[in-house]
Design brief:
- The chain is an alpha/beta fold and 506 residues long.
- The protein has 2 domains: 273 residues, no CATH class; 185 residues, von Willebrand factor, type A domain (Rossmann fold, 3-Layer(aba) Sandwich), CATH 3.40.50.
- 29% of the residues lie in helices and 24% in strands.
- It contains 12 helices and 18 strands.
- The strands form 4 sheets. It has a 6-stranded mixed beta sheet, with helices on both faces.
Length: 506
Amino acid sequence: VSEPPPATGSPPESKHPPGLDHPPRPPQPAGTTFEDYGRTPFVETSVDAVSTFSLDTDRTSYFLALSWVRNGYTVEPDSVRAEEWINSFDYGYAPPGDTGRFAVTSDVARHPLDADRHLVRIALQAPELPDDAPLNVTLVLDASGSMGTGNRVAIARAAAESIRESLRPRDRIAVVHFTSEVIEEYTVTHSAPDDERVVRSIGRLAPHRSTNVQAGIDLGVRLASAARDERPGAYNYVILMSDGVANVDATNPFAILESAPDADGANPLRLITIGVGIENYNDVLLEQLAQHGNGWYRYLDSAEQARQTFRRESWLALSTPFADQARAQITWDPAVVRAWRVVGYENRITPDHTFEQDRREFAELPSGTATTALYEIVLQEGALVGRTALGSVEVRWVDPSSRESRSQEARIAGDTGASFAGADRSFRLAAIVGLAADRYSALSPQVENAEVDHAAIFDDLAALSRELAVLRQVLGSLEAYDDLQFLLNRLTQAAAALGPRSGYSP
């Protein structure tokens, strides 16, 4: 880059505002539902040297936060899932040489926020696979009254139409509308993508009454199961588009899934959830339906983003699965690593003994996608400085075509003497994103909670914002980096505003 790009806003100084000088607290969206999964603690390797978690390619948490700050809201700490922020960015990982395996890479550098720690990145890149299998797609569209807020219907309609247009003549698509019950006259069973009944049904999406997600999913699964029986060689997707605000019949994600079971493990239905809306939004329902429905979760904040997400080349790649029930297990060398903690993945962590079990709640990874995990580690005193083996990573998954269990191992190694400033720029980007999300998620919604060190969080976010401003001189001025700088600046300001109050009037 010949000239450094202009920064989006000025990164704040690392000086925590005095107790009586807090800026006004920006509003948070009303009527939202999130789950606080806490933060992972440091673990001594003498107690447990093994870390096991389901992989994840969701990125809703990041784009939801970006939508909030663009609309003048502050980000709810409970909404932040650091792994989804990390996995929202393209780090340019090299593809594997073998289309049946992941490309596994690792690197290490000194921690940008703590001189006594190191940061380790572990990256898993799935191969690009040909999109030659036919698809059965079932759209389940929320037509409840809450979808009339803002541009929710327009976004859902744009996404549905983009999916329809991206399908090939050999693919099939069905449409279900639901409010307090299924709107039978709008239902279209699996048909060719250019069938006029499909086009007309998508165009008729409009808000009506209450929200019975269970009814929509039940019919969607029945239609998808019938299509699977007729076309056993096709991949099968049920795509729910909703704000997640279920208020009729089952409203719990597990109860909804139990009411529409999928008994065919040889060719599973894959439940994708697409979230729309800012206020009055149930993230927990949509995230858990996808996680336990063998699918993935996305958030859309505009019709244009919907069209970009589901344009032909993007959608056909995402609709080709590479790995089902994918999970990773990290084993640290206690002779080198004294303590460790994973950044994020709090609701993906699983007991170590489940690693060898093929379980539905483990992640589906589409073709060409990547998963990145960051670990904060503390080295043993006297550990070798330089190129060092820190441990190993094993990945296990189920092949979507053969349904055979697969596994792969790799060594975790890197230069423990490497500075953060000298690390690979994609590593630095992942670290800034992941640590910012992790630190911000520690802010308690109960701002009077004295156990939360708001000053330290503010300082960390300010330092990361400055690191990003420096890194952008190398990365260039792409929209993604401009958005990240804007979001990180807003998080830093929010950390100051969310700090504990003195009790005096301003």
